[in-house]
Design goal:
The complex is a heterodimer of chains A (114) and B (113).
Chain A lengths: L3 E4 L2 E4 L5 E7 L5 E8 L3 E10 L2 E4 L6 E3 L9 E3 L8 E8 L8 E3 L3 E5 L1
Parallel strand pairs in A: 2-11
Antiparallel strand pairs in A: 1-3, 3-8, 4-5, 4-9, 5-6, 7-8, 9-10, 9-11
Chain B lengths: L2 E3 L4 E5 L4 E3 L2 E3 L5 E8 L3 E8 L5 E3 L5 E5 L4 E6 L8 E9 L4 E4 L3 E6 L1
Parallel strand pairs in B: 2-12
Antiparallel strand pairs in B: 1-4, 3-9, 5-6, 5-10, 7-8, 8-9, 10-11, 10-12
The chains are: A mainly beta (114), B mainly beta (113).
């Protein structure tokens, strides 16, 4: 089945530690996105990528980094500079011009601080 | 800057009653507008979208939404709510110049028997 796979489902971060959230898609979509979900704040865009080896900052990129070395993969690193990392993280992909804006979401990663 | 507001944080309706969820957007050009639903165990799913043309759009699960440019609104409606409609609903605007999708804060819907 085609879809988006996020792992792990739950992740714990220690003080000063960097952690990486995985996102893989087999939908052959060009665009991929990372959102952060906090109660009452909806989904806020962290980073997005429209093509391999290129990505743009979203509205809350500080303390995060990404890479897009392969079309299928868009990992997100939460660095120690992110002082409030506890949140639910959602990865999404979209096929671009053919059906612009229709995003397919993964099942999410809940990140907590120890 | 582009933004989306959803004035109602939480709404409770009786099963079988009609539903309207409000959405207002701020965007300089003609917007691409979406409604997504987040259900427990099912993740986020697109309900419907508006790009151009007919301002009343139909979506899945019996939902519809109406685009009103004069009010900068894109309200979601359903004539008769089912218990399975209980979920979090997000309105979103597509910013084509930057190729990104901005979401609103969401409205939580509860359905009572």
């Amino acid at each position: 089945d085609g879809g988006i796979t996020q792992s792990p489902k739950y992740l714990f971060r220690k003080e000063g530690q960097n952690v990486t959230l995985s996102c893989e898609q087999n939908l052959n979509h060009d665009a991929m996105y990372w959102y952060r979900q906090d109660p009452g704040q909806g989904l806020r865009l962290i980073y997005y990528s429209q093509i391999v080896n290129d990505f743009q900052k979203g509205d809350i990129a500080e303390g995060y980094s990404v890479s897009r070395e392969k079309k299928e993969s868009f990992p997100l690193t939460v660095t120690s500079a992110q002082k409030n990392p506890t949140a639910f993280y959602l990865c999404a992909s979209g096929q671009g011009a053919g059906d612009w804006g229709k995003l397919f979401f993964g099942s999410g990663t809940q990140l907590s601080v120890l | 800057a582009q933004s989306v507001t959803q004035p109602d944080i939480h709404i409770t309706v009786s099963e079988g009653a009609s539903l309207e969820l409000r959405c207002n957007y701020s965007y300089g050009a003609t917007p691409y507008l979406f409604w997504y639903v987040q259900s427990p165990g099912q993740g986020l799913q697109l309900l419907l979208k508006y790009f151009s043309g007919d301002t009343l759009v139909q979506g899945i699960k019996g939902f519809e939404a109406e685009f009103k440019r004069s009010q900068s609104s894109f309200n979601l409606r359903k004539p008769s709510v089912h218990w399975s409609d209980a979920a979090e609903y997000f309105c979103a605007v597509g910013v084509t110049s930057y190729d990104k999708v901005i979401f609103g804060p969401g409205t939580s819907l509860s359905v009572i028997p």
